[in-house]
Structures are given as structure tokens and as C-alpha cells.
Amino acid sequence: MKEEELFHLLALQQVEGIGDVNAKKLIAQCGNATNVFKEKKHNLLKISGVGQATLARLGDASIFKKVEKELAFIKKNAIDVVTFYDASYAERLKHCFDAPLILFTKGKLNIAKQNMISIVGTRQMTAYGKKVLEDLFESLKPFKPIIVSGLAYGVDIYAHQLAIKHGFQTLAVLAHGLDRVYPAVHKKEALKMQENGGLLTEFCSGTRPDRENFVKRNRIVAGISQATVLIESAIKGGSLITADIANSYNRDVFAVPGRISDEFSIGCNNLIKTNRASVLTSINDLVYILNWKPESDVKQKTIQKQLFVELNDHEKTIYDYLLKEGKQQLDMIALHCNFPIHKTASALLNLELKSLTRPLPGKYFEAI
Question: For position 308, what pLDDT does the model report?
């Protein structure tokens, strides 16, 4: 991306009251972020959600000084900036209507991997929740998923610690800028996870961990993963908000059941009781619903298919893509494999006839 366009994307992010949804509307109308600041005001007023107050803030020269300061911070601290329009932007998150316009990351992230789950729960984790987490991570070894959480006390930080212990990539989604770590006592883990995973936020430097930012953080935790897993939760709490957001994004939600008398099992039990979460009693529940395969099985199947089935270039590209990414829609397969829709559909049919793929509802396909 050109520096000028990044500059104006950051400027849009700084304009109070625009938000991610309206920012994307403005960019769609004007062609890019740079043109938003050049467009005539009467044209911008035609866009739903944009009023005179917004236009006045767009013309505030002070936001450009903030952007210059932020760019200096980014360069000094070797922070990666990923915009909604970059190919490297998290694919699942991109499908969320309110996905962040810009993400700031630090570490060694590879979020294109298929197996990714968010683990959340109470900050007052009990011995039961701790044991459940430990058993879960032992069972997750064959699948090596990316573990996403929020670096908070309790379930969050223990999930990050176990991911580091077992060599899983782990990602902490923050409710503040990358100029700090909150809570500060988790700074050691924040540094350690940057060796295999890292930190991610939508907030510019200087942003404090204010209450409202945690709800915004939770939507990223819910949207970036295949599924959200609740370990323990009281009748109210941030993890229940994350579960509700995950459901609104049509993501799978799992909850660990507990005794009806346990304070920190009430939230999980209610989710299960009201059909807002699948019950999680073992790794088998997760693997069955998400259709996960151990990494060794995927590699072995790839070798076997190459030995016994002849594929043309189109078929092989699509099959390898589905093996890596799991079930995908026809349009996304065509986009990522760089083939026209009609050629993609034809190749998928041939792969189905060769018993290498199968169609799913909603124009989805998966390798078998």
C-alpha cells in the first residue's frame, strides 16, 4: 500500500464518530481513503451515517498531526500495520460487518492457519477451570491450533501460558495501544508470545484500556477464530459478551458445563441450556463440530492423493488450498486460487468425481 493511502486510512481512523462501518462506506464511495479527504462535501453527505458534524471533523487539521505521531511510533517500534484492504488481513475477521479498518500487530503471526480458537472465561478461575484447560491443551497437541485470548487475568492468561508451554501459536487481542501492556503483570507473557504469535490491536498508541474498549476488543476475539470456547463464567461477564458476538457472526460457540451450584458455571450452563453454545466435555466435541484433522493425517492424506490420483494444475491448486484452509465458499476459492468462477466450479466437480472434495450447503466445499 502506498504511504499516502496508509496515511489517510490512519487519518480516517482518528476522526471521532466515523467508526469502521462508515469509514468503509466513505472509501467505497470515493474509491480510496485519500479521495475521502478530497471529495466535495455535498457528495459525502449522500452517504448514510455521514452528517455535518462528521464533515467538520474530517476537516480538522489536528488529526494529521496525530497520524504523523502514530507513524513515527510504528516505525520506531517495528509494528506491522494491516489494513482491511490488504490480502494479509485475517480472512474470517474480514467477513464481520464491523471488522476494524486497521490492525496493529507485533510478533511472528501466521493467522492464515485454519485451526484457530478463542478461549475466554472468568478472571476468577477456579481449580476446576484450571484442570479443564490443562486437559484441553493436552488433547489439542495433534491439532496445534492458534490460541486467541485477551491477556486478562484468569482464564485468558492461563490459556496463553499453556499455549506457550505446548508450543502453540498464541495471539493476544488488546483493548489499548501497543505502547503498553495491560495488566502490566502479564508483560512477561506478552513478550514471550511474540516469539510464536504476538499482540494485536485496533487501537493507536496512547489509547488507554478504558471500559468501552474491552467490548470492541471482544468482537475481534470472536470474529477472528473458527470458534469461541468458554471455560468458566458467572451469570454476567465479558466472556458472555464475546459468546453473544460470536453467535451474531455465525461462529461456533462451546461452553464447559459445571455443577448448578457453582457460581462460575452459571454462565456456561445457561448458554448450553438456551442452545447458544455446544457442550464441551472433551476435545472430541470440538473436533467433531469443527471437522478438524490432526496435522499428521492431513500431511499423510496429501501424500497419498498425490500418489494415486492424477490432477491437472487447476485441480491441484484448489485441492491444496482446501486442505490447508478447510471448508470455503466457491467465491473465496476462486478469489484465492486466482481462477474464474466457471473454471473453479468445473475443477471442483472433477475433484468431487475423484472423491477428493464434497459440496456443502451455502456453496461451501471441503477436501476429504
Answer: 55
Mean pLDDT per 10-residue segment, the chain (368 residues): 89 89 90 90 82 82 92 95 92 93 93 85 96 95 94 97 96 97 96 96 96 95 96 95 96 95 96 96 90 64 55 91 90 90 89 87 83
The number of beta carbons lying within 10 Å of the beta carbon of residue 346 is 14
pTM: 0.79
124 burial level (CB within 10 Å; 0-12, 13-18, 19+): middle
